[in-house]
Structure prediction request, 168 residues.
Amino acid sequence: MTTPSPEKDCYFCKVSRGEADPFIFENRAFIGIFDAHPANPGHALVIPKRHVESIFSLNDTEQADYFDAIRGVKRVIETTDLTDIYQEMLTRDDLKDRPKGQIEAILRLDFIGRKPDAYTIGNNDGREAGRSIDHLHVIILPRYRGDVDNPRGGIRNVIPSRANYQRR
Prediction:
């Protein structure tokens, strides 16, 4: 019995082959997509075309293209009518069997038509960091004034009891 390669069954490999989720950006080493389970309007992913699990395993070409991809996806976020994107997601055939609650919630947000005020950019590098798909994907999460009560601590909030700290 042959064990399937991770690339064959990996969802993000399917995405990078053009079999799921339309690209919003592409360069030599990366593609970008809007996340179909958005946390905020414009939530997008930057995914290497090659199956690689860790940011620390990127080769020289991928490292050279990394920031180009992040900047490219940011430009797309800021020049796209996000209301149209999410309304279209509600009717996409490839998403028909997926839950739509997060998309519907995004469409109800007061700030959906605004340009982002800031960004949280991150990568859950490993299962213990919260990654659910074992293929590197960098999260580009637009942030909007008022999207949370207190954004202080930012990414540190993944460990809530240690997010607030005193600075001298």
